[in-house]
# Entry
Amino acid sequence: MADQAPEPMLTVDELAARAGVTVRTVRFYSTRGLLPPPVIGPRRVGHYGPEHLSRLALIEELQHQGMTLSACQRYLEALPDDLSAHDLAIHRAMVASWAPDAAQEVSRAELEKRAGRSLSDADVRRLTAMNVLAPSGTSGGGFRVDVGLLRLGVALLDVPIAHETILAARKVLVEHTRSAAHELTALFRDEVWGPFTEGESDPERVESMKALSAHMQPMVVQALVTAFQRSLREELRAAFVDGETPGGP
# Structure
């Protein structure tokens, strides 16, 4: 199989437009160490890749969860240095699972700008079926889009997999992550929160425990992502490498 063409590099203006932030924000994050430096090309122009875009999406989600920039920096520093854009997207999706659903109102032109490509009517229908976007119902004909899922949905448009298979995979992921979240929440409630608050009358200590539960969420997310990535590698190896038969693909 031929290698896929690399994603095009972006200027700082293009990166900011794709991420929905200002150029000033990109440069500020770079000075704080939240973004790795760009690749310097001809004429000393910096170019950014898909990893930068995924990092910006992850930072946005962490801040949406209420984390300060310092906390975001600590979270990112704890991640392996060689994470790909796809790995970072998985982290962002797992972090987002703790937050209520949120969508933004965008026009067709802004939707395509955020997607980084033109979208046919068939593409829009497929993204709608994946719950990435929905018609806004306004006279302007815009859309309500889940910005965090948009890049994943756009990437899936070019994947040679049946649409029904993608929806079935999404159902598996939603069901199992919801089950894991339910069991972990019950464990924290029964083994940590319950014993601590039983007979507790000091409001400050109760508030400190609430703060602890909020700060534990990113740690739990990291643990879930790491465990999932390791399990997925092992399952893929067992299914397509260890179990490969002579003459097989």
